[in-house]
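Tokens for chain A. Residues wanted.
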């Protein structure tokens, strides 16, 4: 049987020196904090999937603007066999409206100060900090372009 990686979209929303995270209610990463996201559905772009998953998991409305980075996530059993294979695509999203409320696949949803995430004192999914830092750099670069005379 031929298998293919599953594609997942992660919505990265920065707003007023905060970042929006959800606490996962299901495996993988049950109980850990991470970016809202989930599977890309057939006929849907990754940008559309990020926007939909964000709304379903948090009730927050944001406009997807651009791709940030791709993350390969492979989980193996003790014998080294691949149990799951995801290609996660980080999507920068501009906050529009809404107050975070956990829905769909989330136990909780809330804004966190970027500095709290950088300290790493929250139980988080792998690579949350790396993707956050990449999003901050991309956000600053686009702000620098806009502010140039």
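Reply:
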């Amino acid at each position: 049987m031929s298998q293919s990686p599953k594609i997942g979209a992660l919505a990265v929303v920065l707003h007023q020196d905060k970042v929006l995270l959800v606490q996962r209610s299901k495996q993988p990463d049950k109980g850990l904090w991470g970016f809202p996201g989930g599977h890309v559905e057939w006929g849907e772009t990754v940008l559309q999937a990020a926007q939909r998953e964000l709304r379903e998991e948090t009730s927050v409305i944001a406009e997807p603007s651009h791709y940030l980075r791709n993350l390969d996530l492979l989980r193996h059993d003790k014998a080294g066999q691949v149990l799951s294979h995801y290609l996660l695509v980080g999507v920068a999203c501009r906050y529009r409206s809404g107050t975070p409320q956990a829905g769909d696949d989330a136990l909780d949803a809330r804004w966190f100060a970027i500095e709290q995430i950088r300290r790493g004192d929250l139980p988080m999914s792998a690579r949350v900090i790396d993707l956050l830092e990449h999003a901050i750099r991309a956000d600053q670069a686009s702000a620098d372009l806009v502010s140039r005379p």
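The first strand starts at residue 6 and ends at 15. The beta strands are 6-15, 18-24, 33-34, 37-39, 61-76, 82-97, 106-113.
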